[in-house]
Amino acid sequence: MAGTADFSLKPEVTEYLRSIFLNKEMLAAVGHQEAECRFQKLLTCLSHPPSYTCVRASTHLVPLEEIQRKLHEELKQTREVASVQIVPHPRIADVLLLPVDGPRPVEQLSSEVVVGAQCGSALLRGAHVFAPGIIACPKYMKVGDKVSVFSDLEGRCTRGATSFQGNKVFVGNGVAEMNRSHIFCSDKPLRGVGVRMVDPLYQSPPFDGVLPSLVFLQNLPSVVVGHVLGPQPGERILDMCAAPGGKTCHIAALMRDQGEVVALDRIRNKVERIRQNAQTLHLQSIKAFCFNSVDAVSDDPPQQTEGPPFPPESFDRVLLDAPCSGLGQRPNMACSWSLKEIRSYQPLQRKLFHAAVRLLKRGGVLVYSTCTVTLAENEEQVAWALSTFPCLTLEPQEPHIGAEGMLGAGLSLEQLRLLQRFRPELSWDQTETKVPLISRVDGDTIGFFIAKFLKN
Ligand SMILES: C[S@@+](CC[C@H](N)C(=O)[O-])C[C@H]1O[C@@H](n2cnc3c(N)ncnc32)[C@H](O)[C@@H]1O
């Protein structure tokens, strides 16, 4: 495939991931060759975007067909998108899908701009190059010049360089909106678009600010989480790690904004984002607080305030969308984290899990989710939870459109069947570009994991 290479990781992290995907249980089940092949496909597909953009529609405000029509009109009129296909998801009633065009045959130019790996990943999702993301550009680059944009995978390019021969990947062509001197020699803080992408490797519809109260950009597995939690009008729900509030808002919408959704996050300015998103989507049942959820449960007599900490058994349902190593995110061309950083999440997730179980009422539902692919943060956490909390049992999930849980953590086949792991590597096939969008969507997602528990 033209353009992007495999997901670039520190060698120790690649080896760690390989040991997960080639674990003993997996090798016994599928054999060495198939396990290795799946692992290689995983590394490749993580560096490419899914073949569609997923938006969650505000069906608590307006019927889906009307949102689909409005979105169509809006993209055609204000964004001047000539033809746009918008398809409702066949099983999820509040999801619209828009195909991404790519990888497109784009010819490389002689003038090169180099950006950081994070910026490069954003370009694959349809962004333009913001000036602070530019690391190198031609010596005499001026406004209006046509340039090819490359992503520096290993962070080796020197800021201000005029060229770069290291490990880089082509992400498309654009037009400079700033001179080189403005980018590298200005005293003022750099702002704004430095290169406008006119011929990106992947073309997705420009979404920023489109129908803000009616459509919300969200990965398909993240939308599935809200449905699996199954919130009902009038209930009291806790979202323990909520910012920026995508799932919080979905939960409130599924409850028709009746009841209470308590959203906690440890980072203050991120909590503000939850409030902004709730306001934009006209949701009043959300109460957001800045708080460390590890300490969100207290045996002290209840305070008069409505915020945390809360007495045990305060909530009908709890969502623990845990902070995680994020290795399922797509497209992601490079991750510079050390193995120590990747492995640091399991203990934190367990502390959060303890609080989650205590805060949940008996008969209540706990959903645990991550956007990563490791066993340590997914199936191993489930095995640990089932042995640590005898009151918990695994529950079937609806909808269940992803794969089963992965072998390797000692869970039974029956238990694995109750888990939902989105595994893009299982259906990744670079030759099958003609398969209709609707047959591809459920397999072509970010890497994601969902477990649903009942507290007995
Ligand atoms: C995976 S993100 C959540 C995404 C969010 N659920 C959504 O759908 O928009 C994890 C969040 O957990 C927050 N976080 C990390 N540790 C936390 C803690 N101890 N207590 C509360 N929030 C925490 C992070 O700030 C981050 O916003």
UniProtKB/TrEMBL annotation:
Active-site residues, record numbering mapped to chain: C371 (nucleophile)
TM annotation in the entry: none
GO terms under biological process: RNA methylation
Keyword Transferase: yes
SUPFAM superfamilies for this protein: PUA domain-like, S-adenosyl-L-methionine-dependent methyltransferases
Highest taxon of the lineage: Eukaryota
Binding positions for S-adenosyl-L-methionine per the UniProt entry: C241, A242, A243, P244, G245, G246, K247, D265, D321
Pfam families named among the record's database cross-references: Methyltr_RsmB-F (PF01189)
Keywords: Methyltransferase, RNA-binding, S-adenosyl-L-methionine, Transferase
GO molecular function, one term: RNA binding
Every SAM-dependent MTase RsmB/NOP-type domain range: 140-456
Gene3D superfamilies: PUA domain, Vaccinia Virus protein VP39
The family this protein is said to belong to: Belongs to the class I-like SAM-binding methyltransferase superfamily. RsmB/NOP family.
Protein name (Swiss-Prot/TrEMBL): NOP2/Sun RNA methyltransferase 6
Organism: Nothobranchius furzeri
Gene: NSUN6
